[in-house]
Amino acid sequence: MNKKTFLSAVVQHIRSKEAKESVKAELEHHIHESSDRLIKKGYSKNEAEHLAVQQMGNPSSLGIEFKKLYRPKIEWRLICLFLIVLGLGYLPLIILKDVDVGFSQDLSITSLKRSIYVLMGILIAIILCIFNYRKWQRYAWYFFGVGTLILIVANSGDLFESFIITINGRPFFDFIVFTVDTSIALPFFLIAWASIVNNLKVKFWKLCMFIFISTFLYMNTINISLFMMYLFMLLLMYLNSNRTHKIKIVMVSLCSGVLAFLTIKNMKFYNITDITDRIMGLLQPENDPNGAGYTYIQIKMLLSQTTWGFQPITDEIYFSIPWLYSELVLLFLTYTFGWGFAVLLLVILTLIIVNIAFIATQVADPFGKQLIIGAATIYAFQLFYNVGMSFGFLPLAGISLPFISYGNAPIFINAIMIGIVLSVYRRKDLVANMDKKSNPSLSR
Amino acid sequence: MDKKLKNLRQSMKQTVFKEMSFSEKKKSAVKREIKQENVFLSILQLLIEEKTGVELLERLKARNIMKFDESEGFLYTTLHQLVQKGYLTYRWDEHTLKFYKLNNKGRKCLKKLESNQKSKTAVLKEILGGHLS
């Protein structure tokens, strides 16, 4: 068998182009060295090549081994957790069916809506998983541009009246069939920053400028929870980068953020009374039991009545607490199914974070790692804040429980995160440490 | 009963098993299986300093490890597998040569193997997931 035939037989079943080239190059070099040695021993060029190839072993067996090694990797545990949680999200719907809640007629429509969102979420995750995430790295600034554009449009107020609606002061994009808030800008920023933060050519001051622009736009949309999520994501990605003095910078940013908040609060520059009211409501609900403190008192009461067993929720209770179906759905489920169920649900939701963290350790590519950290932060922030909120530890904010709260955003945004993580995992073993400068044939 | 079984054994030896012989090749293959453990220990030891696949093979032959005779390609499948499991790192240099080297996880594993003579097989099974080929 000659060298060419041997090599193509070995690599023919490898799916990834990058891996194919890499394996071919390595084996070719080996055969080269072997045949050189044989030529020195006195063999002819042809004989040497054939003998060297023979020494390599059976090409089909080798082909099978390499095929197995370079299969796209699928993290089934994460997929299972994802599907389980999507399924658990139907529970609130099922309980509500028994309660005569006035809009039980709409319940079938809500179920249908949720099923559509779930299917779309799964589809989004699959599509993202299949994409070659490495290709996104080059378009980082375009992603940043799209994210910024979304925020600018959201801030434009009357200009796009036809498809921007405001709910509670926050802008929403109305696409007739469904509405999304500015959280759809987050994935774009995630991808953009995952690349830019690691790109040492972008100087610190430039980075600050762009962070400031996007932060400012986010603040203007008065979606404080999204704004905080965005900042957290940035901070953690920065910590994971290899920029100088990163720990000091992060600490300084955190401190200055807190300071800024305290100063603005007294200036009444931005309308932060809403936020301060909520914080005061949490800390001293008795001061304003019918206003800012109301919900916190209701939460405490409901939690005190929660047992380890099942208890159906009554109309009275259901209507006494706002958001029981959306942001406070965890409270709803805890009361209805008991503490045991709550623990189980939280364990499953936390396992997703654990799994993503585990995946992060297996990924060598820095861009991939940043993507995973950003995605994990966005998901974890939602989970932890929502849990804190539902059990009365944190001031109320518009942060939903991933996958389970009512609406399309909890499903879509987190499906995107899962899709990105799966996409990075899929290619984790492919040519991570390549130095493209030394091997131009392998740069893509 | 015993006698009948002995007779069966005799007759089979003369008929079915007549053609079979425990050839030298097979003997050495079995010995190689027994020597499995030494191969991986050697690879890990040799890669404390970075080497290419060709160099590694040379050194393995010097240690009298014949496992990759006539199947040199499988050294590379083994190396790639160890990379994926996180015990080795690699780099390409300007001459398009690929150098392998033990990394932190690999070094820890080597320490474990070298100090833990008895349960070597257990540790190796752990590394390669039962895929000792």
UniProtKB/TrEMBL annotation, chain A:
Transmembrane segments: 76-96, 116-133, 139-160, 172-197, 209-235, 247-264, 328-359, 371-397, 403-425
Topology term for the membrane: Multi-pass membrane protein
Keyword Membrane appears in the UniProt entry: yes
First-listed, main subcellular location of the protein, grouped into a coarse class: membrane
InterPro entries given in the database record: FtsW/RodA, Perm_prefix_1
Transmembrane helix among keywords: yes
Alphabetical list of Pfam families matching this protein: FTSW_RODA_SPOVE
Entry keywords, A to Z: Cell shape, Membrane, Transmembrane, Transmembrane helix
Entry's localization field: Membrane
Record-given protein name: FtsW/RodA/SpoVE family cell cycle protein
From TrEMBL, chain B:
Cross-referenced InterPro entries: Tscrpt_reg_PadR_N, WH-like_DNA-bd_sf, WH_DNA-bd_sf
Signal peptide per UniProt: none
Pfam families: PadR
Domain Transcription regulator PadR N-terminal: 43-111
Domain of life: Bacteria
Gene3D superfamilies: Winged helix-like DNA-binding domain superfamily/Winged helix DNA-binding domain
Name of this chain's protein: PadR family transcriptional regulator
